[in-house]
Amino acid sequence: LSDKAVKLALDEIAAVVNDDVITEYELQQQTHIAALNLRRQNIKLPPMKMLRRQVLNQMILDKAVAQRAKETGIRVDDQMVSAAVEQIASSNKMTVEKLRSELAKDGVSFTMFREQIRSEIVGQRLREREVDSQIQIPESEIDSYLADQKGGAADSEYHISHILIPVDAGEDAAKAKALAEDILKRAQAGEDFGSLAVSYSKAGDSMSGGELGWRTSQNMPTILWEAIRQKHDNGTVALSQDSSGYHIVKVTGVRNGIGAAISTGIVHKTRARHILMQVSQLTPEATVVSRMNEIRAKIVSGKEDFQTMARLYSVDPSATRGGDLGWMQPGDTVPEFETVMDKLKPGEVSPVIKSRFGYHIIKVEERKDEKADPRRARLAALQALREKKLVEAVENWQRELRDKAYVEIREPEA
Fold first, then answer.
1. Quick one: pLDDT at residue 228?
2. Buried-most residue among 19, 37, 200, 268 (CB within 10 A)?
3. CB atoms < 10 A from the CB of 318, how many?
4. Which residues contact 296 (CB under 8 A, 6 or more apart)?
5. Cα dihedral angle (104, 109, 114, 116), rounded to 10 degrees?
6. Strands 20-23, 237-242: parallel, antiparallel or unpaired by DSSP?
7. How would you class 343 by CB atoms within 10 Å of its CB: exposed for 0-12, middle for 13-18, buried for 19 or more?
8. Per residue in 9-24, pLDDT tens?
């Protein structure tokens, strides 16, 4: 094709969303970025046509969100976007120019990268206004949650992934059911669940392979717990249905949980420091692990002290305090962090460990026992219940925005 023909092809409209459009060029760029991110998450890429379709669906939702934000007066100016980009560059220990250069190496347009950041900020602000602020947790629910914890109901945690096949108004419910059952069989037969999520799921977590992380039966969305209630061994794949559609759930890990302190008895407190580094588009997982092991070796050998390394390399806000997290009690950190921290002696440095937030090196400074504050237990229960309801509320909100929008897809169907 000539350069002119290529330009015309890239300028073609892939979809119309109300009074806005998505061009073929934008779709190709976002599909490229999605493929890069999936590879870095070690998720098997689905067929390109399916990936493009999923990326287009996400872009359509992003357009609907942006339009709704504009209607409600939410604005994100260039200065705010620039500040966010500078923060991303800083957390990756580089300048904005270096960031631009690294993106170019991956074939990612810096202009599109900025617009993606703008879109994420707008979406977060709109969601906070229309979803987060509307979630109410009655005191009776908190009481019930704490009673269940006392009874041992939250002793186990499950690492789960999820695929949503919605049943939308006007669509063939039988077709959705057949697709969900087919995906269930393929997942049970051992097909890569992350790739299936990327290919078919309409949930907001689809582009991360549907991963929801570690959940207890109490802070897991109810419909997902219903799917695995009877059988929740590692490797279990099950199907459940509610008014929104079909949910396929896979259990990829089971462990004993660490609940928040719920009594007024004595609690064991730990003062610790940590260094956090995160996998990103610019720092692949292998690079992060290698850097963290180098940092740990310098600390353990005595060549460098923990506080200095935290200030230089940690991307956590605690970096300015030399990684100091202050005094913590059970439930204050994620279980994968807390399990390792609890095994350390004062002065001891952990191996490099992974949590949902990234990779950590932990050092325990000291420990003490104090009487527990029951208000902390209620706050922990409130946060867990909000997290549970938020997953369901966000999915419903996104679906409503998408359904209200006029959408015309001109991208050829696979």
1. 92
2. 200
3. 19
4. 349, 351, 352, 361
5. -120
6. unpaired
7. exposed
8. 557 889 999 999 999 9
Nearest to 124 by CA among 79, 80, 168: 80
Model's pTM, two decimal places? Answer: 0.68
pLDDT of amino acid 248: 96
Which residues, at least 6 apart from 132, have a Cβ–Cβ distance to it below 8 Å? 390
Please report, to the nearest 10 degrees, the dihedral formed by the alpha carbons of residues 373, 375, 381, 383 taken in order. Answer: -110
Greatest alpha-carbon pair distance for the chain in Å reads: 76
Q: Which residues of 96-113 are buried (b: 16+ CB within 10 A; e: fewer)?
A: eeebbebbeeeebbeebb
CA angle 224, 128, 212 (to 5 degrees): 25
Pairing of strands 237-242, 407-409: unpaired
Q: Which residues of 133-170 are buried (b: 16+ CB within 10 A; e: fewer)?
A: eeeebeeeebeebbebbeeeebeebbbbbbbbbbbeee
Question: How far apart are alpha carbons 110 and 100 in whole angstroms?
Answer: 6
pLDDT at 260: 43
Q: Of 140, 136, 199, 118, which is closest to residue 164 (Cα–Cα)?
A: 199
* One-letter identity of residue 62: D
Least confident of 46-55, 256-265, 355-364, 370-379: 256-265
Q: What span, in angstroms and rounded, lies between the C-alpha atoms of 401 and 233?
A: 36
Q: Assign 108 to helix, strand or coil.
A: coil
Query: Which of 305, 278, 318, 325 is closest to 91 using CA atoms?
Result: 278
Look at 81-90, 142-151, 395-404 and tell me which has the smallest mean pLDDT.
142-151
Beta bridge partners of residue 233, listed in sequence order: none
C-alpha torsion sign, points 48, 54, 56, 62:
negative
> What pLDDT digit, counting tens, does each position of 136-160 carry?
899 988 888 777 766 554 567 889 9
